[in-house]
């Protein structure tokens, strides 16, 4: 009886899953790519509007208002509008303000007379320690992008390292921006540590109607690359200049890409501690 049943079972055809036509896969890919691109563009709302102002405001200013002062007013107006329109919450604004403060502190150090990593050559009434106040919004723009992308792409994090480790890494990254002027640059060591720390970490996102995932470190590197591109455009328009760009503009050294990628890690760590984001971060026991 058992042999007969085995034979009967073996004769049952198991239907193979229907193959998806290549043109359907292509349409799906294009649809998800377009949806992803639109959501990414929407996530860059603050950065896009701000850098549009950076590239269009004349270097000589408008109606007697210096360019740097006008950029500060525009950045404040954009930020105020986004909170008023409920595109960002008050808690998110607090995090973005923290990015502004951290960025300004870094700018003040880097442009100081003993360091002179770069400079802001134009006059402004709103300069403190030689740094125009609008400059902090360039760092805040990175935080705003991460916050907006998190919401629009329904992002979740799997296998995030313990928060104390992430914070230790973020603090070490920020400190290295200062200390590498006095001791050896630990950038690549920090990068290797970050690679190990986030090796298992994946970001899950939904560009259209299906979940997709990618290594979180890849996201850090790609974001750093686009910031590096924006930096090249900004220096081309003489918003600020590196010492080797004072005579004629040259491409920002590609090593800055790594610096921006590390800065994105630090920024992400701060964003990940917002209450509504922290709820969607998985830390393995």
Q: How would you describe what is shown here?
A:
This protein is mainly α and 285 residues long. It has one domain. It is 59% helix and 5% strand. The protein contains eleven helices and five strands; from the N terminus they run H-H-H-H-H-E-E-H-E-H-H-E-E-H-H-H. The chain has helices spanning 2-10, 22-43, 45-56, 67-84, 90-110, 136-152, 163-179, 187-197, 216-236, 255-271, 275-278; strands at 127-128, 131-132, 156-158, 202-205, 212-215. It has a three-stranded antiparallel β-sheet with strand order 3-4-5. A two-stranded antiparallel ribbon has the order 1-2. Helix 3 runs antiparallel to helix 4 and helix 7 packs antiparallel against helix 10.
Strand arrangement, major sheet: 3-4-5
Distance between the termini: 50 Å
Structural class: mainly alpha
Mean pLDDT: 86
Question: β content, as a range?
Answer: 5-15%
- List the uncertain runs: 1-14
Could you describe the largest sheet, including whether it forms a barrel?
3 strands, antiparallel
Spell the H/E element sequence.
HHHHHEEHEHHEEHHH
Total strand segments? 5
Tell me the count of domains.
Answer: 1
Helix proportion = 55-70%
Number of helices: 11
Dominant shape? globular
Alpha-carbon Rg, integer: 24 Å
How is this structure best summarized?
With 285 residues, this protein is mainly alpha-helical. The chain has helices at 2-10, 22-43, 45-56, 67-84, 90-110, 136-152, 163-179, 187-197, 216-236, 255-271, 275-278, and strands at residues 127-128, 131-132, 156-158, 202-205, 212-215.
């Amino acid at each position: 009886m058992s042999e007969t049943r085995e034979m009967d079972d073996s004769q049952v055809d198991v239907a193979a899953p229907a193959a998806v036509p290549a043109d359907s896969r292509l349409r799906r890919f294009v649809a998800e790519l377009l949806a992803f691109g639109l959501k990414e563009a929407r996530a860059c709302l603050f950065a896009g509007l701000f850098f549009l102002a950076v590239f269009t405001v004349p270097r000589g200013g408008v109606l007697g208002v210096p360019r740097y002062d006008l950029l500060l007013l525009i950045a404040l107006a954009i930020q105020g509008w986004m909170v008023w329109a409920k595109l960002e919450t008050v808690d998110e604004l607090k995090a973005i303000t923290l990015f502004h403060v951290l960025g300004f502190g870094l700018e003040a150090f880097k442009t100081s007379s003993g360091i002179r990593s770069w400079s802001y050559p134009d006059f402004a009434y709103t300069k403190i320690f030689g740094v125009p106040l609008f400059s902090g919004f360039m760092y805040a723009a990175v935080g705003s992008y991460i916050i907006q992308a998190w919401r629009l792409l329904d992002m979740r994090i799997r296998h995030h390292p313990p928060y104390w480790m992430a914070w230790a890494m973020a603090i070490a990254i920020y400190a290295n921006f200062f200390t590498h002027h006095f001791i050896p640059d630990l950038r690549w060591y920090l990068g290797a540590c970050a690679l190990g720390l986030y090796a298992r970490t994946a970001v899950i996102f939904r560009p259209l109607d299906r979940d997709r995932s990618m290594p979180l470190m890849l996201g850090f590197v790609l974001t750093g690359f686009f910031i590096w591109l924006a930096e090249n455009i900004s220096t081309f328009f003489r918003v600020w200049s590196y010492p080797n760009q004072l005579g004629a503009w040259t491409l920002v050294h590609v090593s800055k890409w790594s610096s921006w990628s590390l800065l994105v890690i630090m920024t992400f760590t701060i964003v990940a501690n917002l209450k509504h984001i922290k709820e969607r971060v998985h830390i393995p026991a």
